[in-house]
Give the backbone structure.
Amino acid sequence: MAKPARRYVCQECGAVHSRWSGRCDSCEAWNSVIEEIADAPTPGVRGGSKGKTIPFVPLAGALDWAPRTATGIAEFDRVLGGGLVPGSAILIGGDPGIGKSTVLLQVVAKLAEQVDCVYVSGEEALDQVRMRAIRLGVEQAPVRLAAATNVRDILASIDGPDGPKVLVIDSIQTMYVDALDSSPGTVSQVRASAQELIKIAKKRGMAVLLVGHVTKEGTIAGPRVLEHMVDTVLYFEGERGHQFRILRSVKNRFGPTDEIGVFEMTERGLAEVTNPSALFLGERRDDVSGASVFGGMEGTRPLLVEIQALVAPSPFGTPRRAVIGWDSGRLAMITAVLEARCGVTFAGSDVYLNVAGGLKISEPAADLAVAAALLSSLSGVPAPTECVIFGEIGLSAEVRAVSHTDGRLKEAAKLGFTRALVPSAGKSKSKARAETTMRVDEISTLQDLVTMFQDNTNIGRRVG
């Protein structure tokens, strides 16, 4: 009998090496290469025997399953695109203790009122899951619970006509396939376990929810192919010092990407936040310099958040640039444009930027609000009161138009804002600008914004 082939696999990127090395040549990660036994070759593949013929069907045809199943938690359904799609595989990642197991237990407790649900825990004992259910007040939900890590045993228990419609695996890194001689959490085990679970999901029309661990960089641990295998990838975001939790969709085959759901961590679990803009702006003060309100878009949802900036003299030879919730490279670009094009200097000053509430912003439309917060802190003049600001800044200091202007203005008007600083729209006026009672000031260049803060009286006049 031939000896089993051995190989060395990087646990970060999945690259295969012929021998062990301290650093992976592909991703340059240290101490990530471990020894694994290669999968046994499939008999008959090289012997010339033919595979069986697969049937082909027309594209048009009746659906065997219902389109979606609403979970009953509106914020979770929003991120999924309206609910769970039968036969779909959903991967949920996030930092330890962020609330992944909590939100999934609440979801299956709601779903169990409609369909049969199974919760399989590979990290906690049954009593530990029951204690969490008691704390959340869902201990009476008809959820079937099990503690197991062997994928073969799990499949044997659910593969049948009376199998569940929703399966939760907490977590995929603890599962293992006994046909592989490697430890749980390795690249081959994670890939094989996910493949078997996704196969049963497609076969039985079962929605599978997988919890995934994350690395120190914030990406889901294991092979990158895991995110390609599943239908939907969700990330749980949030700072431990804030009670807010953001559930963000980064991949969704059945709905929009970059959609977010906002939750608040309470002693009874995660509570939905139906109006996150009002919550993020709940502690805002109008008489403080260095703050502005940004009218952003997260997926299809308009969201207003406060951007805070502090420009202070630096006691060191090299000034600091610290950013929380935004791109540090984008901040460097904004300060460079202000210095080169508008004559505003930040030399010898530390610059701190923070997005209040623990939210992370990635869209370029925040450029104008960031510039307003920086100029407000530098000049000591508060930004215009009850004013929402958005717009993209180019390298030549022009302010460029952004998408979804109507939605941003409507959200601001709903929360009582009376003024908006927006990019110049040229000849065309949006419907929201014509219908709203807000005062909409158009800015074509960044110099217009600088002029407003150089003279306090200019803040109250129309620009453009």
Remarks:
- Confidence is low (pLDDT under 50) at residues 41-47, 457-464.
- The chain has three domains: 6-37, 74-274, 278-460.
- The chain has twelve helices and 21 strands.
- Residues 6-37 form one domain.
